[in-house]
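Structure tokens please, single chain.
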Amino acid sequence: MFARLSNALSSPGFPSVILVVGNFSTGSSNASIKVRHFLPEDGAVERFGISGQSMTTFRYGGVIEQSRDHLGEVKIYTGDGESPIGFLDEIEARVRRLSDATSESNMEQGQMGDAEVVQRTTEIVRQAVFDAIRDRGRAPSSNATQTYPVYVIGIKRSRAGRIMGEPKSWVS
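Here you go.
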């Protein structure tokens, strides 16, 4: 038992990056965050949300937060039909475009180590968020708005792959 705990604490794990929009702590017992997980193994993007107990650090299913950078605040025009998920979709599209533009070749990316891939992904996500927040200028709305914090978080996973597990399809 102690050997397993020691291995878990000393193992390098699998580094990765998540983008979070929402509040970890709302002053009450409920928190709600929307997440995009950029998988370094294959470039896929995992999408999920977590609601429930207020938390100060991101911990879920063997994932441990290693670093957090508050990138700013985004105003979502909820009264006009916008949502944090729509903002994350916009960021995801920008990340894909920036990744394609900065990749010199697939071969180069295959030669990068985990740390370099995570660092490169973090830089691309940061740039995409900053660009999206800057480009959101629009006429003020008389409908409801809500402001959400935006974070890029470096994580260590206990295993490679998705945080929430493989997506399930329900076919009748």
